[in-house]
Amino acid sequence: MSDMEKDARKYLIPGLERGLLILMELSRHHREMSFAEILKLVDIPKATAYRAIQTLEYMGFVQRHPTSGLYSLGVNVLRLGFEYVASLDVVQIGQPVIESLRDTTGCSSHIAIRDGRDVIYVARVSAANATIRRVSVGTRLPVHRTSLGRMLLTGESRETFESLYPDDQLPDNEPGSPKDRESLWAMVQEDRERGYVIAESFFQFGISSIVYPLFNHDGEIEAVVSIMVPVHEIPESDRERLRHDVAEAASNISNLLGHQGTRGGKRQMG
């Protein structure tokens, strides 16, 4: 052992180190294990290992099967993991993913959230030859007039929807937007069933978008990811490829947010 390693180990707490070693082995093997198996892997005295496991079990980091007596990770390990993931901002997690999405598709890419009846762009990367510069980080647009807003609404109940839009008529009803509240709700239900939105000149003529939801560890829609395609109508030859790329980015970000949904399922991949 080098002098540097000796200096580093000088401040370690042996009991804590041994407990963490046990947790790491249980995590690495992804299965229930007997005390004898754990003891062989961590290579520490039997009495010390037993006390460490008893402490971890008492604190909920290890659980023992009542019949087989085998050990596995406890719920508090999962809770720590979820709390760590929850502490990460969706922008911090998603920024490198949308940069890769931009590079793959050649299209400007975005992450947006909902704030009341507004969509807020919280992350954006522009394509190298982008000519569309209408939105930037912090831009707010009406939920009911954008494909991103429609996708964000798919995670809401009818009760929440009606609290957002208590009147039959929608505010600032522009040409091309849903004509009334029920028309918007019908579109949202279709979007929910499909699992994504491909909107061609929905908000602005000559601009199309592909939008997928981002799910957190509770299975709730945290945000959406999208690409902006500078065409009135996406060519059939490009449509499926671009959709798959956005779906892949959404799946990657959702996984990083702790979502445990099945890869390739309707809600993730369409």
How would you describe the overall organization of this protein?
The chain has 270 residues and is α+β, with helices and mostly antiparallel strands. It is elongated. The strands form two sheets. A six-stranded antiparallel sheet has the order 5-4-3-8-7-6, with helices on both faces. It has a two-stranded antiparallel ribbon with strand order 1-2. It has helices spanning 3-9, 14-29, 35-42, 46-58, 75-87, 90-105, 147-153, 158-164, 181-194, 236-256, 266-269; strands at 62-64, 71-73, 108-115, 118-125, 140-142, 197-200, 208-215, 221-229. It folds into two domains: 3-81, Winged helix-like DNA-binding domain superfamily/Winged helix DNA-binding domain (Arc Repressor Mutant, subunit A, Orthogonal Bundle); 88-269, GAF domain (Beta-Lactamase, 2-Layer Sandwich), CATH 3.30.450. Strand 7 and strand 8 (221-229) form a beta hairpin. Helices cover 47% and strands 17% of the residues. The protein starts with a helix and ends with a helix. Keywords: DNA-binding, Transcription, Transcription regulation. One of its GO terms (molecular function) is DNA-binding transcription factor activity. It comes from Halomonas binhaiensis.
